[in-house]
Amino acid sequence: MSNGLRRKLTSYGDQGFSLFLRKAFIKAMGYSDDALDRPIVGIANTYSDYNPCHGNVPQLIEAVKRGVMLNGALPMVFPTISIHESFASPTSMYLRNLMAMETEEMIRAQPMDSVVLIGGCDKTLPAQIMAAASSEIPAIFLPTGPMATGHHKGERLGACTDCRRMWGRFRAGEIDEAEITEVNNKLVASIGTCTVMGTASTMANLTEVMGLCLPKGGSAPATDSERVRLAEATGAQAAKLARDGGLTVRELLTPAVIRNAMVALQAMGGSTNAVVHLAAICGRLGFKLDMDLLDQVGQRVPLLVDLQPSGQHYMAEFHNAGGVPALLKEVRSELDTGALTVYGGTIGTVIDAVVDEPGQTIIRTMVAPLKPIGTLAVLKGNLTPRGAVIKQSAASKELMQHTGRAVVFDSVEDLSNRIDSDDLDVTAQDVLVLRNAGPKGAPGMPEAGYLPIPRKLARQGVKDMVRISDARMSGTAFGTVILHISPEAADNGPLAIVRTGDTITLDVKARRIDLNIDPAEFDRRMAALPPVPEGPPRGYASLYHRHVMQADEGADFDFLQVAP
Ligand code: FES
Ligand code: MG
Questions:
Q1: 113, 41 Cβ separation under 8 angstroms
Q2: How far does the centroid of ligand 1 lie from the alpha carbon of residue 193, in Å?
Q3: Which residues pair with residue 513 across a beta bridge?
Q4: Distance between CA atoms of 414 and 448, rounded to whole angstroms?
Q5: What is the C-alpha separation between 130 and 103, in angstroms, rounded?
Q6: Vertex 151, ends 145 and 155: CA angle to 5°?
Q7: 3-state DSSP of 48-105
């Protein structure tokens, strides 16, 4: 049974007086005793004028409230930070942990018996799952849903794989200023999250895979009535959780559920960023994300979902093809189908209820996959002692085994200063290296890992090169890009010792990335690295620098993890 407004009445010693005061203040908003004596569902409001991906949040909140009230509980909406990819400086990743901390503490601080967390843009669902994994009450999630696609000269456009593709065409001189301006009006056709299998879609789908939101909650379009009905049903379930209790996120997310998430991630062509977020979530649960297991899963589970950037289509087609439940049905043999969900029953029950969509081609089968390989491979080697990832499903086949001369950029700024210079000494066979762009380096591990093709090579028609960094990459990007090298250069990882002119060998089949220098020279260069600088003197920047962990640990703060 719930505690409602009686929860956490400790501030004045006299509990009766604390409740009396609490009621007196909240009655200023016009609540009756009848309303206040009910179980309470908190609803985190992440609406912000800076966050178009959350543009439907007010409508979703209304529907959640309706679902809560129809089921006899009291909804209480409270604000939290909202993070949008394009409006968060220095990076959205830099702020993810702040949002996770704030959300966790506001859930803890305020009286509520269950909580609905509404998120969507890349870092928001991960931050909210991290927060809920550290909370004591049941939480149910409501993704905002993918945006609509636009049209230009007979082609469909979807943010943001097409943002990159069209900008690439502009850079290469294939389209002019007037046309790119027109495209700019059409790329983001509605509110909602990016409509390809980028980080937002990946994390929304994984939220569903992990049983944390209702079936189809990962994929229903932001602007569809189905999304609003899902919101009402989410509110109804939250009221039930508030009244009767239920499993917390920490109880739901077992290692077997994380493995289910890995299976889906590999099968759907998910974002590399999901690896960092899953690692952070695991850290909150007291275990480490098993990178070797992720790689093994990728060797068993091929790419099944035909969505950009690994394939052709957009989230609406994935949804219409049956979405996550249909995908899970296809990979059923790889799953722990006994995994429990926040809405009762198991993932196996969800799969049993799937009605096949006749003729759909978006979700392929295990016997006839879109590509015979899984999405992500985990690389090791002398350059990355704690691992790195490559989205092999979005990489060029001919570059998967490649040795080239390193062309090193020391920072994101150095990269932007020199990459387009006609004097840059670079050929298509070289390996572009970006460092000091990891969790500490930039700071905030920007999505700079998708280094642009140097302009002079782009003009010659070069579309892809091997690129390596300690940065992240947008889930919407395409190319032979090795990411999350850890430890990062700014933490004196081996990436710091690479010099322009050294050679680097990538061998995806052997799961290796190595700097080809003599071991004694390697050690000598490592020993000569200067100490890691102290970092900023004050504020969140200082906290961040002192406590952020490496990519393989999810770039969470060390003090937020739970000891194994
Ligand atoms: Fe928000 Fe892509 S910018 S999901
Ligand atoms: Mg993104």
A1: yes
A2: 5
A3: 506
A4: 12
A5: 9
A6: 115
A7: CCCCHHHCCHHHHHHHHHHHHHHCCCEEEEEECCCCCHHHCCCCHHHHHHHHHHHHHH
Rounded (10°) CA dihedral 48, 49, 51, 57: 50
**Whether residue 452 has pLDDT greater than 60:** yes
Confirm or reject: Cβ of 232 under 6 Å from ligand 1: no
30 pLDDT exceeds 90? yes
Q: How far is CA 254 from CA 142, 210, 294, 509, in A?
A: 21, 9, 15, 30
Ligand nearest to the CA of 272: 2
Nearest-angstrom CA–CA distance, 530 and 117: 44
Q: What is the pLDDT of residues 304-351, one digit of tens each?
A: 999 998 899 999 999 999 999 999 999 999 999 999 999 999 999 999
pTM of the model: 0.97
Task: Provide the token pair at 327.
Answer: 């995908």
Mean pLDDT of the chain: 96
Q: Is the per-residue pLDDT at 1 higher than 60?
A: no
Provide the 3-class DSSP secondary structure of residue 206: helix
Atom of ligand 1 nearest to the CA of 51: 1
CA-to-CA separations, 496 to 325, 425, 437, 438, 470, in angstroms, rounded: 44, 20, 11, 11, 10
**Token digits of residue 120:** 């969507």
For ligand 1, whether the C-beta of 84 sits within 6 Å is yes
The residues facing 146 across adjacent strands are 193
Whether 200 lines ligand 1, by a CB cut-off of 6 Å, is yes
| 74: Cα within 13 Å, side-chain hemisphere | 20
| Summary count for the chain: helices (H), strands (E) | 20, 14
Q: Which domains does the chain have, with CATH numbers?
A: 1-37 (no CATH), 38-147+195-352 (3.40.50.2300), 150-184 (no CATH), 377-530 (3.50.30.80)
Look at ligand 1, atom 2, and give the residue with the nearest C-alpha.
194
pLDDT score for 504: 98
Q: pLDDT of 385-439, one tens digit each?
A: 999 999 998 899 999 999 999 999 999 999 999 999 999 999 999 999 999 999 9
Non-local (6+) Cβ contacts of 537 within 8 A are none
Q: Of the residues 194, 271, 447, which should be mutated to test ligand 1's pocket, given the most ligand atoms within 8 Å of the CB? A: 194
CA of 474 to the centre of ligand 2 (A): 5
Mean pLDDT, residues 85-94 taken together: 96
Atom of ligand 1 nearest to the CA of 476: 2
What is the rounded radius of gyration, in angstroms, for the C-alpha atoms of the chain?
Answer: 24
Q: How confident is the model at residue 215 (pLDDT cuts 50, 70, 90)?
A: very high
Q: Ligand 2: distance of its center to the CA of 160 in Å?
A: 8
